[in-house]
Task: inverse folding
């Protein structure tokens, strides 16, 4: 099966309020993880979003040597330490990842349309949440949707294809980025680069740096992110 024909799937949670969903939150996991990993955020977010349905699809490609790990695109050759020392190499790697993100972005975009139809939720009541590589995909897809999502929440990620964004952007949802300042996998500088890139295309972005946090999500991040999603989705109606 080609990626273009691939149908994503993963764990889902119906609204905590037990009625019909009024909002949809899609969670995109990081490299080497799966939907079960990120759906664990849903019970915390449900406290603020009782009328939201949650879904966390598995990425389309298995990671070689990791039976339960998936990737949105390959990270072969990615070396954060080397990229920190060589900005030119880091920029080249970012461009390569942006090209690699195009195919899975189409798969995600179609999945979002199917899930909105499944839950009978209007496209403007969609929110995207990503972690690491999932944040890269959430930004890539969300900024190019025909109808802007209510918001995009990204943990420990980066903005890919910033050079092309001015010509490709179709939507300008509010964005919240959260990143640990001790992240050894995706350096916190990537978050500041994303803020700069989003500002350049007039996307409203707020950000938070978590002191001492590595490549992960802490309680403060969940609280801040949950507040952002609640505001963004309630604003959407």
Result:
């Amino acid at each position: 099966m080609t990626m273009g024909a691939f149908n994503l799937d993963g764990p889902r949670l119906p609204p905590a309020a037990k009625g019909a969903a009024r909002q949809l939150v899609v969670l995109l996991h990081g490299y080497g993880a799966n939907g079960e990993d990120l759906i664990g955020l849903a019970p915390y977010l449900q406290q603020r979003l009782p009328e939201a349905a949650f879904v966390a699809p598995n990425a389309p490609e298995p990671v070689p040597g990791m039976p339960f790990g998936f990737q949105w695109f390959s990270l072969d050759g990615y070396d954060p330490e080397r990229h920190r020392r060589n900005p030119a190499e880091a920029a080249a790697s970012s461009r390569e990842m942006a090209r690699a993100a195009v195919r899975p972005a189409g798969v995600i975009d179609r999945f979002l349309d199917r899930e909105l139809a499944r839950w009978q939720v209007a496209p403007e009541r969609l929110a995207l949440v990503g972690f690491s590589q999932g944040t890269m995909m959430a930004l890539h897809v969300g900024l190019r949707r025909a109808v802007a999502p209510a918001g995009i929440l990204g943990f420990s990620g980066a903005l890919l294809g910033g050079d092309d964004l001015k010509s490709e952007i179709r939507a300008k949802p509010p964005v919240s980025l959260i990143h640990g300042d001790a992240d050894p996998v995706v350096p916190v500088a990537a978050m500041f680069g994303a803020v700069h890139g989003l500002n350049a295309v007039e996307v409203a972005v707020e950000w938070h740096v978590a002191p001492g946090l590595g490549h992960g999500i802490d309680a403060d991040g969940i609280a801040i992110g949950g507040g952002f999603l609640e505001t963004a989705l309630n604003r959407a109606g």
